């Protein structure tokens, strides 16, 4: 359904002659198609979401690198693409909700130190996939054990 929504949005962008949105949406669809061809599968919503998450992470990394290099023109392009790509991400959890999820995972797993971080991240990744930045989740876990 998410793939169909993206395709429908591409058609709307074409009709509206929104070149920026059309470019970003075509990049998303290209990445999805590449995954389908590489793995010879029809992607599910979870797999489409994983592709979109990867694109968001790539844009954020590019933005930080371009800012360091003083390339404001490229930062603006990446931020515009990021805004469009973020339309296909589920609503993000607040930090308080992430802390609650981490506390629950710690209680459920009996984790007691940083040695258990991998186990916690594995458990939380399934629960919070697409809903939270795993970097923030990692930081919350580290703060709990430090």
TrEMBL record:
InterPro entries: Asn/Gln_tRNA_amidoTrase-B-like, GatB_Yqey_C_2, YqeY/Aim41, YqeY/Aim41_N. One of its GO terms (molecular function) is carbon-nitrogen ligase activity, with glutamine as amido-N-donor. This is Glutamyl-tRNA amidotransferase. The lineage of its organism: Bacteria, Pseudomonadati, Pseudomonadota, Gammaproteobacteria, sulfur-oxidizing symbionts.
């Amino acid at each position: 359904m998410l793939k169909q929504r993206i395709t429908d949005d591409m058609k709307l962008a074409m009709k509206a002659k929104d070149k920026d949105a059309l470019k970003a949406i075509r990049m998303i669809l290209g990445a999805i198609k590449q995954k389908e061809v590489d793995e010879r599968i029809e992607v599910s919503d979870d797999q489409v979401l994983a592709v979109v998450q990867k694109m968001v992470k790539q844009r954020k990394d590019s933005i930080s690198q371009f800012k360091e290099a003083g390339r404001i023109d490229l930062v603006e392009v990446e931020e515009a693409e990021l805004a469009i790509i973020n339309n296909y991400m589920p609503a993000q959890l607040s930090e308080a909700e992430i802390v609650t999820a981490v506390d629950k995972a710690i209680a459920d797993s009996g984790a007691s130190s940083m040695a258990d971080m991998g186990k916690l991240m594995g458990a939380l990744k399934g629960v919070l996939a697409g809903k939270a930045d795993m970097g923030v989740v990692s930081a919350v876990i580290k703060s709990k054990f430090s």
